[in-house]
Specification:
The protein is α+β, with helices and mostly antiparallel strands. The chain has one domain. Helix content is about 55%, strand content about 15%. The chain is built from 6 helices and 3 strands; from the N terminus they run ααααβββαα. Helix 3 packs across helix 5 and helix 5 packs antiparallel against helix 6. The longest helix is centred in the C-terminal third of the chain and has 19 residues.
């Protein structure tokens, strides 16, 4: 059982059922296209990154407020980054899209350390992810 399964086990069934109705009213494919366009604008377009992340992303049908979303670096015994996991909401509105933008920005930054000693620059990394969200919101003329 990996870290994502451990974190999700206690809440998974309870919250998923609660949010099914919300997701039934959403065109998830359109939101995914929007995410892809935003990531490309942010310079996150390296196909090797997306190939690497396949199977390492858990998308949950939960509201943004129901869970702590994030990127989970996996560090080897020698301190090098060996893998990455990410938990994000299925995109159903602007807020959930912003969470995806934020976490993909973190994951892309973490990915740059793959096979090397991992150094997390919390404040800088968080600012970079928040700035990506803000640029998107400014572009569409919305605030959260």
């Amino acid at each position: 059982m990996d870290i994502i399964q451990i974190v999700l086990a206690p809440i998974q069934n309870v919250i998923v059922q609660k949010n099914r109705n919300m997701l039934d009213k959403t065109n998830i494919k359109d939101w995914q296209k929007e995410l892809n366009a935003v990531l490309e604008e942010e310079g996150i377009k390296n196909q090797e990154f997306f190939t690497f992340m396949k199977g390492k992303i858990k998308r949950l049908p939960l509201s943004v407020e129901d869970f702590e979303w994030g990127v989970f670096p996996m560090i080897g015994e020698n301190g090098t980054l060996i893998d990455i996991r990410m938990v994000i909401p299925i995109i159903y509105d602007v807020k959930s899209l912003c969470v995806n933008i934020h976490e993909y920005t973190h994951a892309y930054e973490v990915y740059s350390y793959l096979g090397r000693t991992y150094e997390w620059h919390t404040e800088e990394s968080e600012q970079k992810a928040c700035d990506a969200e803000k640029r998107y919101l400014k572009k569409i003329g919305k605030q959260l």
